[in-house]
Amino acid sequence: MAPPFRSSNSNSVRLNTSLSSRVQVSLLLQASIPTFRGSGGMWWSLDATSLATPTAFQSNPSLVWQFYHHRRVKALEASLNLAHRLLAKLPISTFLETIAPTAKSYHLITQNVDRLSVRTLDELTDSASTNSTLKPNEKPRMDSIIQMHGKLFDVKCTQCDYTKEDLSNPLCLALGAAESHFETFHDVAGLEGKNIDIAISELPTCPQCRALARPGVV
């Protein structure tokens, strides 16, 4: 594992891009969440980079929503592991001092969209909030995570500026039914003639203007 590097700002330390990438893919595997290009997942034969585009969503919003709904389900089912918990502690000044004594701040730049790092930090923050004896430098900073590829649980309107995190499972009845339909299949490549085309009217919609909504990673 490559060591952290110091940025031009002497008051900050961050993980370099390659290290951040390797760490985050490892976290996905440890949490039993299929990676975009990993084997064994129901959707692994589809190129996630081609699905995560505005063009793909405009062309087939049903398919894109089903793809990301499956990832939402897996992320909600996943358990936090020791790696998540250790990384979540680094934004705490007193803990960071033991790892990098001269660092003043720390940011986790994650390529993952699964919210597990955020969930870990949320739990740590909730625990700290109940301990009135903790000093400010003994509490985690909620702005320490940068999710560079978007947020899987954000629901965004395609027409207005509405954006909100929604942890509901399923987001709508049609997506829940589609997920149940695919449970017995191992790969979307073997679903010819069995795929479900969900009507736009049955996909998630914006609560403000009722337009079609999209995942926060498209």
Automatic annotation (TrEMBL):
- The answer, when asked if Nucleotide-binding is one of the entry's keywords, is no
Q: Where does it mainly reside?
A: mitochondrion
| GO CC annotations, alphabetized | mitochondrion; nucleus
Q: Where is the active site?
A: H149 (proton acceptor)
Going by the UniProt record, its keywords in alphabetical order are: Metal-binding, Mitochondrion, NAD, Transferase, Zinc
Tell me the protein family, please: Belongs to the sirtuin family. Class I subfamily.
- According to UniProt, the name of this protein is Deacetylase sirtuin-type domain-containing protein
Native species of this protein?
Tetrapyrgos nigripes
